[in-house]
Design goal:
By secondary structure, the protein is of the alpha/beta class. Helices cover about 45% and strands about 10% of the residues. The chain contains 16 helices and 15 strands. Strand 7 (about 290-295), helix 11 and strand 8 form a beta-alpha-beta unit. Helix 4 (about 95-105) packs across helix 8 (about 175-185). The structure holds zinc ion.
């Protein structure tokens, strides 16, 4: 009994400290969750408690370095609270994009920082910590002989056990996200882009290629491909539209599939650290105007590919797919125009957030057509019907998105062609698995569509015949790089004609 009394001040100190951290930092990552079912809410609570417990472990061990701890901890605490403010108020994502913006002193985040609410929040948190440290000035210092030390080791182990069970379960949440996003930012991208040395040119003119890169859309959920629900009420009325329903990719993550789709890297290539050529680097050399308009925050694996475009706009770059306040894809079209000078060739890439989980966040309420829908982020508390209904609602949204885009492209005088390709599919309950990070075969058949303008049709009847002829073929996502160079009549650069869908 006497012994336990000895440790009480220490227990009080660490309990209090963890409550402060929870209030000012950790809880920020949870407040925007949809609180639907009791079961789901209990899972969120367990997640939070485990995260906080693991954090206690790291902090306790850090506090063994008594003097260093007293100086460094408040600095880290204030740093983390200045980020948690954005997560609390706007559900911003502490990811690579954010770290990049800060390290490259991006002016648009400076505007956010300067609000009085932000200053007030940081002052309040700093003052609370200062007061807390003063009150516990005489607290017993941490020691490896303390029972809390053993508890702390369990806490640290919790971090690794949970991360091993579910990758990024903690790494994406504050305050861990700050550290891991910085590490990710500092690491070099896996793919190294080659410079195009050839004197590339084109015989083409007045061509506009619109490439829409989709997200997590599987081919068999389009009614265009025979799905038993009408998920394409608008596109099914469009003429000049061809759907390829047998496109395959082995990559089921955006970070792996995009570098493959947008470069000459083949799906058969085994090396992950290889040199590859960006599609846009070749087209730039042939004097194409290249532009990227993205509604997904930049990831390190394809950052350089985006930057190989002559113009790039990343919309809503501080909200990743995890944010519940992420902008909907229709915003992409506000940044896209068909106005252009005659004769110039152009490729515009629109990168959608598409059908990425959490499905409800992708659509506006007028697209909640199939019901009942999901109400929680915890899949275990949802039914198969709710999940598939919500997923199909995102396909309805896509149908509307592409239809508006096509109507816009019809106004253009250029020879216009639109290629829509999702980066991969999605697992929807096959073998009890959900979402796309499962490497399941259900996630390997992305949706792919081609639409062409009447001008294009008149000018290239043979290409249209080829498309119609090949639409039943089983192809891989390798087709994209070679098809676009073929389409652009690229000369003096070697590519594989036989992989082109127009050849
Ligand atoms: Zn993806």
């Amino acid at each position: 009994m006497e012994k336990i009394k000895l440790w009480i001040p220490e227990i009080k100190f660490h309990l209090g400290l963890n409550i402060l951290i929870a209030v000012f930092i950790t809880i920020a990552s949870y407040v925007h969750f949809p609180f639907g079912s009791l079961k789901g809410n209990l899972v969120y609570l367990a997640h939070f408690l485990l995260l906080q417990f693991s954090l206690f472990g790291f902090i306790y061990i850090f506090s063994l370095l008594n003097k260093v701890f007293k100086i460094v901890f408040p600095i880290l605490f204030i740093l983390a609270t200045s980020f948690s403010f954005w997560v609390y108020t706007q559900d911003l994502t502490i990811g690579v994009g954010m770290i990049q913006a800060i390290s490259e002193t991006n002016s648009d985040i400076a505007i956010d920082v300067l609000s009085y609410q932000f200053v007030l929040f940081v002052l309040l948190s700093s003052f609370s910590l200062l007061l807390f440290f003063r009150l516990h000035k005489k607290s017993r210092v941490s020691s490896i002989k303390s029972p809390l030390f053993f508890l702390a080791i369990f806490g640290v182990l919790t971090f690794f056990v949970v991360e091993n069970y579910k990758y990024d379960a903690f790494k994406n949440r504050l305050p861990y996200s700050l550290y891991f996003a910085s590490v990710k930012y500092a690491n070099k991208p896996k793919i190294k882009l080659k410079e195009v040395k050839e004197q590339v040119f084109t015989k083409e003119e007045n061509l506009h290629i619109v490439l829409v890169v989709g997200e997590s859309v599987r081919a068999d959920h389009l009614s265009l491909n025979g799905y038993n629900r009408n998920t394409n009420p608008l596109l099914s009325k469009q003429k000049n539209l061809i759907s390829f329903k047998k496109v395959y990719t082995p990559f089921t993550f955006t970070s792996q599939s995009l570098p493959q789709i947008l470069t000459d890297k083949s799906i058969d290539s085994k090396q992950s650290h290889q040199e590859a050529t960006s599609l846009y680097s070749v087209l730039n050399k042939a004097s194409f105007k290249t532009e990227w308009i993205g509604n997904q925050s930049i990831e390190r694996s394809y950052k350089d590919i985006i930057y190989s475009n002559t113009s790039k706009i990343i919309i809503d770059k501080f909200h990743s797919f995890q944010s519940f306040k992420k902008q909907k894809d229709l915003v992409l079209l506000d940044h896209f125009s068909i106005e252009d000078s005659k004769l110039e060739n152009r490729i515009s890439t629109l990168h959608m957030i598409g059908s990425h989980w959490y499905y409800n966040s992708r659509i506006t309420s007028d697209f909640q057509y199939f019901k009942p829908i999901i109400s929680s982020k915890y899949i275990g508390s949802l039914t198969k019907d709710e999940l598939i209904n919500s997923y199909d609602n995102t396909i309805l949204y896509l149908d509307n998105f592409l239809n508006i885009l096509i109507e816009k492209l019809k106004q253009s005088s250029k020879n216009t062609i639109l290629i829509y390709l999702s980066d991969h599919g999605e697992t929807l309950g096959e073998d009890g698995k959900w979402l796309h990070a499962q490497r399941h075969k259900a996630a390997r058949n992305p949706a792919m569509l081609v639409w062409f303008s009447n001008n294009f049709k008149e000018k290239y009847p043979l290409k249209i015949n080829q498309l119609k002829f090949k639409k039943q073929d089983s192809i891989t996502t390798d087709f994209l790089f070679h098809s676009i160079l073929d389409l652009g009549k690229i000369e003096n650069y070697k590519f594989e004609n036989k992989k082109s869908i127009f050849d």
